[in-house]
Design goal:
- The chain has about 750 residues and is α+β, with helices and mostly antiparallel strands.
- It contains 20 helices and 33 strands.
- Among the domains are: about 160 residues, Nonribosomal peptide synthetase, condensation domain (Chloramphenicol Acetyltransferase), CATH 3.30.559.30; about 90 residues, Rossmann fold, CATH 3.40.50; about 80 residues, GMP Synthetase, Chain A, domain 3 (2-Layer Sandwich), CATH 3.30.300.30; about 70 residues, Non-ribosomal Peptide Synthetase Peptidyl Carrier Protein, Chain A (Orthogonal Bundle).
- Strands 1-2-7-6-5-3-4 form a seven-stranded antiparallel β-sheet, covered by helices on one side.
- The relative contact order is 0.08.
């Protein structure tokens, strides 16, 4: 029975049967009873922290002071032979909260007392730690052959706060977003659906344009279920084309017009796109694509999936992006939740600031257009960083979706007195959200509720949310709780539900997941797994690859990956995909990509090709976020004895050394570009023929350069142009060309 003590102290007694087993294990090991409790405590700390070596104070007699723990070992195997542990002990300061344990033999039962100094982020206190320790010892006694990693840390007091993967999830019907838009066109025909500057289009206009677009697609031979790629800059015509594509029963493939031509061709082919729609303010061009094939959805569709709706691409590991097929029910489920939970409706103005190839664009478009709100379009995308806050202010935007790193650049680039009084909702997603950014954002948007969203594309847009409080806790913010009809499971390597505070893989369960991947059966089987806790063949779990843990209240933290995938400006990037593409260059004999803090990608290559050539090669084949900012040439790559890349042996990129500091700038434009580079890079020794990336520049720094170029010269250069012209002299030529237009 557990007894409450002070907030930092708690006691419990092991029952007689468990206590007898502990004494038996001690006798067989030639150790004392405290040594068995010490081994169990070390196993628990290992489960909660991942530390495999733990230092004990005071150290047990007769053995080394450092205990080594493996989760695949039995508890009886972790007891050091002949160890004599003190009746009270503590672990070193790496274990937080700091844990001290004391043992008292009360005859038939052993009494344990835990003292903790503070609580960890998961809300672990002495009482919960003792519950988990008692559970681990008791379950080991009931099954002595079980590994300590297989002993559940879900306790009686926490089970009700954690999801039960056996529970049936409710399934409700949701109307397609196109039906919602058509209904609004009938109910509120004069309400403003889309605004761009001084131009406005009513819901009646959108309904009519979408119907006309759907009819044109059918006239051009588009069949229901065929994939239609839609591309173009932000315009009413683009919005109508997207809605019309869905209304025609086709599958939407939104494609960023700024992508390199080879990347677009690859996406069309991988998606089996039959038609391409290019939308411009005054024209709508529909072309039949060559080599179109029938779309074949992956097996084991979700129970609620009726018709495919859209395709988006995520980074793959083989040098080729992976297509994810979403459906109408999943899209409508998310949009309906967001609309109802946050009371989005007439009077709200929702910003469109996201690239077409990023699935966030679906919630940017369909949240307002199914709510009777207004979708606000900029003149072009991407917006110049220094102008984003000004545009949000001018458009009186009330709802915004943002990626944390981009939001930071917007804040840094905007005039310090820019405040957004109309912004009431900010949804952050795509990357970890920090308290520092929340504080900085609230200074500019004092009325805005800040919501942290989480969810991979494979489970439809987002599946967890956390409302950041007025005083956010330091560091990375939680991802909170799941949406309705969704469970966020944290599973151990053994496939069991993790206890509070125990790291594991975040696995999402929802009938509103996507179909999954096109033409990737192995990846489909790896990521979409049968729920082992039920017999329903449609009940698949999506293994996200993200590492998370439950808090004491059942909410969720996220803090890493089980693989090498990284997020750069909200875009998922697989380093192995980048390496596979780089290895196709005829001048590259071997290549590896490593994510360094930032995060930014570093390419290690066995090649004599200049970095500019390799960067240009990748730019033609990959999105900008996946292009490394540093290239390190090596005679060979280091590998371990088992054939794996030895990342530890790869040095950090060397400090940038300018090549041409003695070359004088030709004119005021080059001098201006160099001044901006010096300001952004924090160095004076830059020359007109130096490469921005060789000087230590990276993608976020490039965004700041774009902002300063706009302020100084009034030219709005895209990131793609700047990647393709990385020297100050080349960039100055682009500035002159832009000024001449």
């Amino acid at each position: 029975m557990l007894e409450r003590g002070s907030p930092a102290k708690a006691s419990c007694s092991l029952d007689a049967a468990t206590s007898a087993w502990v004494r038996e294990v001690a006798a067989r090991s030639g150790a004392n009873v405290s040594a068995v409790i010490l081994a169990a405590s070390a196993a628990l700390v290992h489960r909660l922290t991942g530390h495999e070596e733990l230092t004990v104070v005071p150290p047990p007699e007769g053995v080394a002071p450092t205990l080594r723990v493996r989760r695949d070992a039995r508890l009886v195997d972790l007891v050091p032979q002949g160890a004599k542990a003190a009746p009270s002990f503590a672990f070193d300061d790496r274990v937080q909260p700091r844990l001290e344990l004391a043992l008292e033999d009360r005859g038939a039962e052993l009494e344990l007392t835990a003292t903790t100094h503070g609580q960890g982020r998961s809300g672990h206190g002495a009482e919960l730690l003792l519950e988990q320790l008692e559970a681990l010892i008791r379950r080991s006694s009931q099954d002595p052959g079980a590994a300590v990693g297989a002993c559940s840390l879900v306790t009686a007091s926490t089970a009700g706060r954690l999801p039960d993967p056996r529970t049936p999830l409710p399934v409700s019907p949701f109307a397609p977003v196109t039906d919602e838009i058509a209904a609004l066109a009938g109910r509120s025909p004069e309400a403003v659906a889309v605004a761009s500057g001084n131009a406005h289009w009513a819901y009646a206009d959108l309904g009519a344009a979408a119907r006309e677009g759907a009819e044109k697609l059918v006239t051009h031979g588009v069949e229901p279920g065929e994939v239609v790629a839609v591309s173009g800059g932000p315009s009413f015509a683009l919005v109508a084309a997207i809605v019309g594509t869905l209304a025609a029963g086709a599958v939407l493939l939104p494609v960023d017009p700024a992508l390199p031509a080879r990347r677009k061709e690859l996406l069309y082919a991988k998606a089996r796109a039959a038609h391409l729609v290019i939308a411009a303010p005054e024209t709508l061009v529909i072309d039949r694509l060559p080599d179109a094939q029938q779309l074949v959805p992956p097996p084991d569709p979700p129970a609620v999936a009726v018709e495919p709706a859209y395709l988006v691409f995520t980074s793959g590991t083989t040098g080729s992006p992976q297509a994810v097929l979403g459906h109408h029910a999943g899209l409508s489920h998310f949009v309906a939740w967001q609309r109802e939970r946050w009371a989005v409706g007439p009077g709200d103005r929702v910003a469109h600031v996201t690239s077409l190839s990023f699935d966030v664009v679906l919630r940017e478009l369909f949240l307002p257009l199914t709510s009777g709100a207004t979708l606000c379009l900029p003149e072009r995308l991407p917006l110049e960083p220094g102008s984003v806050l000004r545009w949000l202010l001018e458009e009186r935007v009330s709802v915004l979706h943002a990626v944390p790193t981009l939001a930071r650049v917007w804040l840094d680039s905007a005039p310090p007195d820019t405040v957004l009084p109309d912004l009431r909702l900010t949804f952050f997603a795509g990357e970890p959200l920090t308290a520092d950014l929340v504080h900085a954002w609230r200074k500019r948007a004092p009325r805005s509720t800040v919501v942290n969203l989480y969810g991979p594309s494979e489970t439809t847009l987002a599946k967890c949310f956390f409302v950041v409080p007025d005083q956010p806790e330091p560091g990375i913010q939680p991802i909170g709780r799941p949406l309705p009809a969704t469970q966020a499971l944290v599973l151990s390597p053994e496939g069991e539900l993790c206890g509070v505070g125990e790291p594991g893989e975040i696995v999402l369960r929802t009938p509103f997941r996507t179909f999954g991947y096109l033409d990737a059966p192995e990846l489909q089987r790896e990521r979409f797994r049968r729920n082992p806790f039920t017999d329903d063949v449609h009940d698949l779990l999506y293994a996200s690859g993200d590492v998370g843990r439950y808090r004491a209240d059942g909410s969720l933290d996220i803090f890493g990956r089980v693989d090498e995938q990284v997020k750069i400006r909200g875009v998922r990037v697989e380093p192995r995909e980048v390496a596979a593409v780089l290895q196709r260059h005829p001048g590259v004999h071997d290549a590896a990509i490593v994510a360094r803090p930032g995060p930014e990608l570093v390419a290690y290559v066995v090649s004599t090709e200049p970095a500019a050539e390799l960067r240009s090669f990748l730019r033609e084949r990959l999105p900008a976020a996946a292009v490394p900012t540093s290239f390190v040439s090596l005679p060979s790559l280091p590998y371990t004895s088992n054939g794996k890349l030895d990342v530890a042996a790869l040095a950090e990129p060397p400090a940038a050394v300018p090549r041409s500091t003695l070359v004088e700038p030709r004119d005021d434009v080059e001098r201006g570009v160099l001044a901006i580079w010096s300001e952004v890079l924090g160095r004076e020794d830059v020359g007109p023929e130096d490469d921005f990336f060789d000087l230590g520049g990276e993608s976020l720094a490039l965004l700041r350069v774009a902002a300063r170029l706009y302020e100084m010269f009034g030219c709005d250069l895209s990131l793609e142009e700047m990647f393709d012209h990385p020297t100050a002299r080349e960039l100055a030529e682009r500035v002159r060309a832009a000024e001449a237009v």
